[in-house]
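[job 4471] stage=fold_predict status=RUNNING
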Amino acid sequence: MKHPLIDIDGMRSIQLGILDAVHAFCKERGLRYSLGGGTLLGAVRHKGYIPWDDDIDIMLPRPDYERFIREFDGYRENLSMQNYGNDPHCYIMFTKVYDNRTVLEEDDLLRNGVAIDVFAVDGLPSEEDLVIYHRRMARTYRRIYRATRLYSYTPWQEVKHFLKQIYRTSRSKNIKKLERLLSKYDFETSDYAGAITGAYGKKEHMPASTFRSYVTLPFEGREYMAIADYDTYLTKLYGDYMQLPPEDKRQSHHPFKAWWK
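[job 4471] inference complete, writing structure tokens
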């Protein structure tokens, strides 16, 4: 029997606890990170969550992101990580850091706990080459997604065992292919960069200088790291970002539910 659902205030409290731990870890290890997406917008416009939002996104330059996913596991006993590298049933191209004392159901595959989302900021090609680059990335990701679903749902019956092995091999091969593509343009030397594996896709393509300097911003009575040039970033994603959207657009787009174990 499931425990009572965690309400939005409870979700936010848990997420902030995770973010506090991630912030402390990044400060200790000298890792660059920034609030990202709607979380950064919330920090600038509301000094906290967007009132109708219920998640937290952060982003790290690819070199810092790779160190983070190698070194963070075990930093706090109650925190775990999920990505396609450590979970064969996971298909997302970023990492979730979740409170393992909770359970969260997001869809029929993504099951973990109340989490924050951690994205890599990758070096990117010029605007002229971006369409082909993004198309290759999306095609490879679709193959990973399809293989992950088959891997997760095909029963271990002898007649289907061989087919499942083929798709497991396909998943591994395409993950390596995707990682080669994402590391093609070195973050430190590229003219362009962005967290292109996020929901905004090609819209994340920006001058790499946008992600080179950092400041602290207030968020829910705390202070966290943010890119100093947040105006360029937020304008590219949201346009006139200080203007509130129409009332009918002020709603969460995350249909998840969570509870304590």
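[job 4471] summary: The two ends are 10 Å apart (CA to CA).
[job 4471] exit 0
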